[in-house]
Amino acid sequence: MYIDCRGKTGGKIHTGKAGIDERNLWQEFYSSYVATYLERDIHELIAADSITFTKFLKAVAARTGEMLNYKNIAGDVGVSEPTIKNWISILSRTGIILCLIDKKTYLRENLLALPIQYI
Questions:
Q1: Which of 87, 41, 78 shows the shortest CA–CA distance to 60?
Q2: Where is pLDDT greater, at 49 or 114?
Q3: What average pLDDT does the chain have?
């Protein structure tokens, strides 16, 4: 089985086998991508096992487009807030996520910068 994203239909998955579920192929593709990312790109940067970091990636992906709340993610993953901040900065530096700043005006006309994450 192989994934060919350069096919005639542009971006479609072509397996060469009839009857294979596209959803399973995409799940296999992304799980392989995450495994490669963990093993090659950031293995030295994170001080955790791959299961914990994968749990972190899922928690961050579930919050795409929301205000970034380190405490909630830390609670879901079971690690400290400084660890989550470090991991978010690693994802940002490696181009996996993009954190935008949403500036809201609060009382006394102070600006508070709240990042919004996008994967």
A1: 87
A2: 49
A3: 76
For the stretch 95-113, pLDDT in tens is 888 888 766 644 444 555 5
Amino acid at 98: L
**Tens digit of pLDDT for each residue in 23-32?**
788 888 888 8
Q: 1-15 burial by CB neighbour count: b if 16+ within 10 A, else e?
A: eeeeeeeeeeeebee
Domain 47-118, architecture per CATH: Orthogonal Bundle (1.10)
Q: What is the DSSP secondary-structure string of 27-95?
A: HHHHHHHHHHIIIIISTTT--S-HHHHHHHHHHHHHTTTSBP-HHHHHHHHTS-HHHHHHHHHHHHHTT
Q: Where are the domains of the chain?
A: 1-41, 47-118
